[in-house]
From TrEMBL:
Keywords: ATP-binding, Cell membrane, Kinase, Membrane, Nucleotide-binding, Phosphoprotein, Transferase, Transmembrane, Transmembrane helix, Two-component regulatory system
Pfam families: HATPase_c (PF02518), HisKA (PF00512)
Cell location: Cell membrane
Record-linked SMART domains: HATPase_c, HisKA
Membrane topology annotation: Multi-pass membrane protein
Entry annotated with the keyword Membrane: yes
UniProt protein name: Sensor-like histidine kinase SenX3
CDD domains: HATPase, HisKA
GO molecular function: ATP binding; phosphoprotein phosphatase activity; phosphorelay sensor kinase activity
Gene Ontology biological-process entries: cellular response to phosphate starvation
Source organism superkingdom: Bacteria
EC number annotated for this UniProt entry: 2.7.13.3
Length: 422
């Protein structure tokens, strides 16, 4: 009996030892597998199961969804390492060396990982490779959300262009209100002055003359706002027609004839003749007329304004394979435009010299109309200028063909216009 008890006790002790050894071996194996998956040991665990070695870093389908998002996408792991990032995130400088390079974004991701709450923030970032002082900052919207239990998803949307458009819209509304208020207020005051001076014919005549000036300025402003609204969508509103460049120049010179004569400014036209454009005659006449009028208004007395025309190849001007352009240049000997102002002169209501613009009745919309007319006719407008030496504005528009008279119907027909440039 004693032998049986001793044998049973020995077997129990041996079984306990085997169990402890197996438990320790199992725990050690699991720990080694975890180290192999996390990459801390730098070695692959050969005893790990194949399915554990091939376990994806992202949940199924997430990679596909991120690839079609318009926003920049970044997925962060438990240690703030970048598990996945779109090419746009690298291009914007958000990810560098496998880490998030923007501290506020990283802090937001850590807070979301801690409590699982979705967060959003607006940031301004420096453009990659640009100076923080001179370059326009990138305006981005950052949204951070948990992705499963361990990952964090960061979505970054570039809102720079949207913010710029909103700023232009606000400035436009504010400027329109101000520009309309000025002549309307002047007309109100002048009408009161006329009423008070009803017994003084000379005063009435003087105030009436001022009222006509303000009324003309108001009508010009309203008309230019209408013209701008018609061309700002970069689309022709009517069927295009052949337009003679010589006729546009003659009309532009006639428009400024009185102002130029009063300042003894000579307007000379030269270059290639018998050129034709295809487009909206009224819009083209307004664009060229605005350029010539600006040249006269900003030139000192007894100077010269030159209008030159020529035909050039689009390959030389724009690097295109074929096609021809008509180039119309308007050169003055005026005050010139500084480099800072040259970047903004085509904006609505922007004036290089506000005092002179108001003195000459300028609305600040002329060059903006020129820009939109050029765009709607698949052309461009550019400026060269040196302060104190003058400016040259150049319109480049697709060349058209002269109308051909049908001998049978005695009616003018047109040859097909060249194909539109994309």
């Amino acid at each position: 009996m004693d032998v049986n008890v001793a044998a049973a006790a020995a077997c129990a002790i041996a079984g306990l030892g085997v169990g402890l050894t197996a438990s320790i071996a199992f725990r050690w194996s699991e720990r080694e597998q975890a180290r192999g998956r996390s990459g801390k040991t730098g070695r692959t665990n050969r005893n790990a199961a194949p399915e554990l070695e091939q376990e994806p870093a992202l949940p199924p389908g997430v990679d596909t969804v991120l690839s079609v998002l318009r926003s920049c996408a970044i997925v962060l792991g438990e240690g703030d390492e970048v598990v996945k990032a779109s090419s746009a995130a690298y291009a914007m400088g958000l990810v560098r060396g496998g880490k998030v390079a923007v501290d506020p974004m990283l802090s937001l991701a850590r807070s979301t990982r801690r409590d699982g709450e979705i967060r959003q923030i607006e940031l301004e970032l420096t453009r990659p490779g640009a100076s923080a002082r001179t370059a326009e900052p990138l305006a981005v919207s950052v949204r951070v959300a948990p992705l499963g239990s361990r990952l964090v998803l960061v979505l970054v949307e570039d809102r720079t262009e949207r913010r710029r458009i909103e700023a232009i819209r606000r400035d436009f509304v504010a400027n329109v209100s101000h520009e309309l208020k000025t002549p309307v207020g002047a007309l109100s005051l002048l009408s009161e002055a006329v009423a008070d001076a009803s017994d003084d014919p000379e005063a009435v005549q003087r105030f009436a003359g001022r009222m006509q000036v303000e009324a003309t300025r108001l009508a010009s402003l309203v008309q230019e706002i209408i013209d701008l609204s018609r061309v700002q969508d970069d689309q022709l509103k009517v069927d295009p027609e052949p337009v003679a460049v010589d006729e546009l120049i003659a009309e532009a010179i006639d428009r400024c004839r009185q102002t130029a004569a009063a300042k003894q400014i000579v307007i000379a036209a030269g270059g290639t003749t018998d050129l034709y454009l295809v487009g909206n005659r009224g819009q083209l006449a307004a664009a060229l007329g605005n350029l010539v009028e600006n040249a006269v208004n900003y030139s000192p007395p007894r100077t010269r304004v030159a209008i030159a025309t020529r035909r050039i190849s689009s390959a030389a001007a724009l690097g295109e394979a074929d096609g021809e352009l008509i180039e119309i240049s308007v050169t003055d000997q005026g005050i010139g435009i500084s480099e800072k102002d040259r970047e903004r002169i085509f904006e609505r209501f922007y004036r290089v010299d506000p005092a002179r613009s108001r003195l000459t009745g300028g609305t600040g919309l002329g060059l903006s109309i020129v820009k939109h007319v050029a765009a709607s006719h698949r052309g461009t407008v550019s400026v060269w200028s040196v302060e104190g030496q003058g400016s040259t504005f150049t319109l480049r528009l697709p060349a058209g063909q002269a109308p051909v008279e049908d001998p049978e119907n005695h009616a003018a027909t047109t040859l097909p216009a060249p194909e539109a440039r994309s």
